[in-house]
Each structure stands twice: as structure tokens, then as C-alpha cells.
Amino acid sequence: MEKSWKISLLVSFIVLIGSIITSFITFQSYSNILKSSTRSISELSAMNVYSEINNELTKPIYVSLTMSEDTFVKEWLTREDTMTEDEITDYLMGLHNRYGYSSVFLVSTQTQKYYHYNGVQKVVSQSDPHDVWYYDFLDQDNEYDIDVDSDEVTGDLTIFINVKMVDEDDQVTAVVGVGLEMDYITELLQDFEDNYELTVYLTDLEGLVQSSTTINNIEQLNLFDELGSELKNDITSNQEELVTVSKNNGAMYVNSRYIDELHWYLVVTKDTNVLAHFFLDYLYASIIMIVIVLMIVVNIVRLSANLYQNRVFTIAKTDYLTLLLNRRGFDKEMQEFDSSVAEAMIFTIDIDRFKSINDRFGHAVGDVVLRRVANIINNEVQQYGKLSRWGGDEFTGFMIGKRSVVVDILFHVLELINNDDMLQEKGVSISIGYTYSDFTDSLDTVLERADKYLYKAKELGGNQIIGDEDL
């Protein structure tokens, strides 16, 4: 049994080590494939995000540029002092209703009035900190500008597209534009992050975050400083196509794309550690499953081996014809006696003139007689001891109990044989010899005494019992 355990453990250990090594190699292979695939996936995702962002943010630019070329607005500005405010606010309201922008505005350079679709909001002034954007923009050469600021009307953080409107003499007559609530852009970025499992930023040319799903990052976090100067150079050196940079030895991929219309950078980061941790968890789970399966298999194998071994032992100590113990089985039973047992009866039984039965009726009938006699004896003896087929037509057994009781059992056996119709048709009788043992003598010595009584019974004609008390 111990040897079986050692073999099972050795096999299990070899299989376990092999499985772990195989799982590790597979994990390493998948890790390399994962890094390559993650790069491709991150690039594809970044391009999808770029297309969506470019579409969502360039549309209000074109709307604002269209406003700056609108003949009605230009005509209205030339006669601003005589025109009604409702005419321009109705125009702004029409754009608001059509596109749904949170802010649609016009600031006249002649009157400094800030027209909103809800009416005149204010008169801009260089002394008002909220109006600095307007004067700074007028001082710039660019046709349009994008500014992130709080909307004075709603108080919400907003992306404003500011466009200069000029007359025939290239003089700025107004600043027009629209505003997108940052919440809208944030929701858009959040959808990208949820769908593609990445992080999206929009930054200005210096790396200052202009839009992010983390509101606290806006106008506060410099992403180029966060990523490092080396990555900053990689990002800013190419404004024509998608740039992909590996960070922390492949633990993160940084994809960037310059959006020319916005003069912003789209920066997308993809953390590969999430997938790496997933595969690592998968590896651990696989090892645990292997261990569990191995434990189950080992126990099944051990149980099967034990059952098979017990089956072999049973066969080895069982007589194939009568299914009683054979000589080996009887010896083993005698060796396993509890030391508390003080005395046992040992008996031998032999079928009288069994050879003549075989000669008269054949061996097949002889086998039937042997099985019948064995069943009758065993049914009586098994409550107090064991019976074995010692060989041929001879049976040996032992019983433990009061002498009067066990002796009576032997006489009852003799009576049952003599009253069995099938056995009497064949002229079957038995002789029995018995003795008692206190286990101080060897089994051979005790059996020799029982055999002596058996032979004595046969000498007297058989069909009788002789034991210690009779001599």
C-alpha cells in the first residue's frame, strides 16, 4: 500500500511539474502574441477614436466658419446701430435649435456687445477677467481658435470655437462661434474608454489636457510631462500620421494623432497589464485546476489499485470451486487472531469414499457434491469461525466459542449431511476430527492432532466425529 502511494505521488509530481512548465511556456508564448496584438488593437482603436473625435469636434468648427461667412450676419453688423437685437438673437437661436450647441454667440467689435441666442449677455471689457479670451484672440493671426473655459451663462465647462468675421477691408467686425459642453465630450470619451478599454486625452500643443474623462485633469495635467520627455518628442515630432510608442517595456502603448483642425493632440494609452494579469490569473487557475484534477485522478487510481489489489488478494486466498478460503487464506486468518482470544477449536472434515463417488458419477457430479457439502458446513460454522477447502475433498476450519456449543455445531453438520436428499442419493457421508488450541503450539502441530482424530474416525467406518474428549 505504501509503495502504491509513493508511485502515485511520484507520477503526480512528474505530471504536475510537466503541466506547470507547459502552462508557463504557453503563457509566455501568449504574452508575446498579446503584446503584438495589443499594439495592433491599440492602433486600430486610436484611429477609430480619432475618426469619431475629428468628426464630432470639426463639425462645430465648420459651423462657426460658416457663420463668419454668412451674408445676413455681415449685413446686420454693418447696420447694427439701426437693426433690432431680436434679428441676430433669432438667427443664433436657429443655429442652437438646429445643432443643439450649448452656446451660439456673436461679439461685435463695434459695440463690444456679446450676443447670445438668449439675448444680449453682456458688453465685453478688457477689465473683466472673463473677457481676456476675446482680446487675446483678436491679437492673434489665426482665423479661428479653440478655447476651454467656463460658460458665463450656464457656468458649465465648455469648449468654445471662436472665429473672426472680417469685412471687405479685412477688418475684424465680430467674433462668432459655438460652444460644446465638456460633459458631452467627456461622455464621448467615456464611451471610447468603455468600448475599447483604453484611456483617451485631448491636449493642446504643449501637452496640457483639454479634455479627459477625469475632470480634474482638464487644464491641470500636462500629459507630456507625465509621459516623459522622450515620449513627448516622439509624439510632437510627427503631426502627419498616427504615432505609437511603447512605454515600460510594453506594459503600456501610447498612441497619438495630431488633429490639425483643432490644433490638439489626441493621445490614447492602452495598459497591457490588464490583459497580462488576466492571463496570469488564467495560469494560476489552470495550475489549481491541474492540482485538483491530479488529486482526483490520484485518488481514483489509488482506489482502483486498492480495489484491484484486494480483488487479487481475495482471489489468491479463495478456492475457485467452493468459494471458501483456500489453504493460504486459512493460514492468513489464523495469523490475524486477536491476542485476546484464549482458545479455538480446529477441525478437519473429509468426505468418506469420495473417490468412489467420482468414479461412479463422474467429476462434474463430484464437484457438485463438494459445493453442496461446503455450503452446508459453512452455513453452520460461519457464525463462530471460518471454513476452508484444504485440498481435494478435505476441509479445515476453526471456531471460537464455548466447547459445548462448537461441538454441537459439528454434530449438527453431520446430521444435516445425513439428512440431505441429494447427498444421500450419492451415498455421501463425512468424517470429522477436532482439537483445541491455546495458540502455544504451531498451526501445523494443531492440524496434525486434528488429522489424527479424522483418520481415526475414518478407520472406524466414517460418518462420525472424534475429538480431544474421545481419546
Keywords:
transmembrane; alpha+beta; transmembrane helix; diguanylate cyclase activity; Diguanylate_Cyclase; Alpha-Beta Plaits; 5-stranded antiparallel β-sheet; Sensor-like_sf
The sequence of SSEs as H and E is HHHEEEHEEEHEEHHEEEHHEHHEEHHEHE
* Radius of gyration from the alpha-carbon trace, in angstroms: 52 Å
Say what the CATH topology of one domain is. Answer: Alpha-Beta Plaits
Outline the biggest β-sheet: 6 strands, antiparallel
- Reading off the top of the CATH hierarchy, the class of one domain is best stated as Alpha Beta
Total beta-strand segments: 16
What's the helical proportion of residues? Answer: 40-55%
| Percent in strands | 15-25%
State the CATH architecture of one domain. Answer: 2-Layer Sandwich
User: Could you report the average pLDDT, rounded to the nearest whole number?
Assistant: 84
Summarize the structure.
The chain crosses the membrane at residues 7-27, 282-301. With 471 residues, this protein is of the alpha+beta class.
Note down, in words, how this protein is organized.
By secondary structure, the chain is α+β, with helices and mostly antiparallel strands. Among the domains are: 69-183, Beta-Lactamase (2-Layer Sandwich); 327-470, Reverse transcriptase/Diguanylate cyclase domain (Alpha-Beta Plaits). It has helices spanning 2-68, 71-78, 85-99, 132-139, 182-196, 223-227, 229-236, 273-316, 327-335, 354-361, 363-381, 403-419, 421-425, 443-459, and strands at residues 103-108, 113-116, 119-123, 144-150, 157-166, 172-181, 199-203, 209-212, 243-247, 252-259, 264-271, 344-351, 385-391, 394-399, 430-437, 465-466. The strands form 3 sheets. The protein has a 6-stranded antiparallel sheet with strand order 3-2-1-6-5-4, with helices on both faces. A 5-stranded antiparallel sheet has the order 8-7-11-10-9, with helices on both faces. It has a 5-stranded mixed sheet with strand order 13-14-12-15-16, sandwiched between helices. Helix 11 packs antiparallel against helix 12. It is rod-shaped and about 155 Å long.
